Amino acid sequence: MEAQNNIPNQKFPLQGAEGARLVVLGAGESGAGAAYLAQQQGYDVFVSDFGTIADKYKAQLTGWGIRFEEQQHTEAEILAATEIIRSPGIPDKAPIIKKIKEKGIALISEIEFAGMYTHAKMICVTGSNGKTTTASLTYHILKKAGLNVGLAGNIGKSFAYQVATQNFDYYVLEISSFMLDNMYNFKAHIAVLLNITPDHLDRYDYKMENYAASKFRIAQNQTAADYFIYCDDDAETIKGMAQRSFKAQLLPFSIQHMVERGAYLDDQNIIINPILEHFKMSINQLALQGKHNIYNSMASGITARVLEIRNQTIRESMTDFQNIDHRLEFVAKISGIAFINDSKATNVNSTWYALESMGNNVVLILGGVDKGNDYNMLKELVKQKVHSIVCLGKDNSRIHEAFEDDVEVIVNTNSASEAVQVAYHLAKRGDTVLLSPACASFDLFENYEDRGNQFKTAVKEL
């Protein structure tokens, strides 16, 4: 697939920048790391954040001697830049982004920038759901195999900071659509596209094809020596692939049918057969259970086999892997009621996967900032498995409209503590209280981690 939207005539300095002006917009993990790497490469760096900068990042920037501002954008400083690195959370509609584009200043992502300063092989994972789990599992397998590997992107320490301070041979990068939007010359050696389901449509003019196009940028610049791993069961992925050409070697995975090269399900066994000897493992041995995690494990397993990691190492890694926080994380069992923290489920499809892996008798905690959600895909699972819904958000009207005929009880709450108390009283022994909000968290919380942590604290206080 050809690289799309390349920055015309843009020459990026690869060996030091000799005082070129570089502005970083946003001073979170991504922005601070990008600023540090840029300074290391000889740029004159300025960081600008329209919001408040967290104390941790202020201390870092100050310690590094990097100029910064917060709660404003000084246009004279920003528009004098040679290049601008945009943090992924800043949308195209932001006034400063419009002015940068009007002036024709190169606007790139932290991933694009950091990729210029490392010769490591890139294993890049994207998709609407399962990115963090798949990236973490892939990293776990590679690390266990003794590879010199880093984990970055949407997870852990920023990619740029690691490039500045480490010397890895491989990186596993969890990459969101927002990051992909400003990646142009960056190339993934192994690109993984897990699925494409409606998410963040507010950033893509509410057009699914725009969001899908962003996801497919994961494969841009790949050559015949590279690999594109994808889900052959995902309708949007297959639709998008039919409209594009790929130079990379294609390795699909499916639980619905056999594939010649890639991974598939044979009865209760995952079979992986790319390139060399094939791999076989019972799904009952997987540390991660549920249909969605079979897909995640297949994607990680194919990646491992492409890198010629021993079958025994893959099997051991898939058996002993511990899932990340806030992703179907078991918190506690109190009075026979299980509490599960799935705060990372910020879209409907993630919540569908969570419910699909549950038994019956669920009290579901839903709600937050609705990104144009269509709750219809949840209705059947809610009818089968959920007897009560506890809403956790400022505006819960759409949840009431969607499910008022499907559950016995829908209750509004305004805090994690209140939601946990109400859910505990609605549940009985043998039930599961599942926090899987299907929404962003910014109405009541700093982010999904804050929401998950407050949920865990509230459970432990019962």
Automatic annotation (TrEMBL):
Its subcellular locations are: Cytoplasm
EC number(s) per UniProt? 6.3.2.9
Task: List each copy of the Mur ligase C-terminal domain by range.
Answer: 326-439
Catalytic function, reaction form: UDP-N-acetyl-alpha-D-muramoyl-L-alanine + D-glutamate + ATP = UDP-N-acetyl-alpha-D-muramoyl-L-alanyl-D-glutamate + ADP + phosphate + H(+)
Give any GO molecular function from the UniProt entry: UDP-N-acetylmuramoylalanine-D-glutamate ligase activity
Kindly list the biological process annotations in GO that this record carries: cell division; cell wall organization; peptidoglycan biosynthetic process; regulation of cell shape
Give the superkingdom in one word: Bacteria
Q: Which SUPFAM superfamilies match?
A: MurCD N-terminal domain, MurD-like peptide ligases, catalytic domain, MurD-like peptide ligases, peptide-binding domain
Q: Which GO terms describe its cellular component?
A: cytoplasm
Tell me the Pfam families matching this sequence.
Answer: Mur_ligase_C (PF02875), Mur_ligase_M (PF08245), MurD-like_N (PF21799)
Major place of localization? cytoplasm
User: Which residues of this UniProt protein bind ATP?
Assistant: G127, S128, N129, G130, K131, T132, T133
Q: Which stretches make up the Mur ligase central domain? A: 125-302
Per UniProt, the keywords (alphabetical) are: ATP-binding, Cell cycle, Cell division, Cell shape, Cell wall biogenesis/degradation, Cytoplasm, Ligase, Nucleotide-binding, Peptidoglycan synthesis
User: Quick one: which pathway?
Assistant: Cell wall biogenesis; peptidoglycan biosynthesis
**Record keyword Nuclease present:** no
Q: Which PANTHER family match?
A: UDP-N-ACETYLMURAMOYLALANINE--D-GLUTAMATE LIGASE (PTHR43692)
This molecule's function is given as: Cell wall formation. Catalyzes the addition of glutamate to the nucleotide precursor UDP-N-acetylmuramoyl-L-alanine (UMA).
Q: What family does this chain come from, according to its entry?
A: Belongs to the MurCDEF family.
Q: What is this protein called?
A: UDP-N-acetylmuramoylalanine--D-glutamate ligase
**Which source organism?**
Mucilaginibacter gracilis
- Gene name? murD
